[in-house]
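Entry 14. Ran structure prediction on the chain below.
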Amino acid sequence: RKGYCLCPFHQDKNPSLKIYPNGKGFYCFTCGTGGDQITFAAKYRGISNVDAAKELAAAFHVPVTEPVSYREKR
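Output, structure tokens:
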């Protein structure tokens, strides 16, 4: 309904979670939870942002390279 839905982070009876277009994130006007897609996945699954980013990358087949140290680059 115009970008609003029920918030999964609290007991919500009326749509209060706004999902912004073009990947600009989300914000709940009742509980104040907000952020980007990675933050949403992390909070929803109860995991860290790093783990959520890795899961999203795997789900959407986005290659992720781990940073290497200066010594390994040499």
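The radius of gyration is 16 Å. Will compare against last week's run tomorrow.
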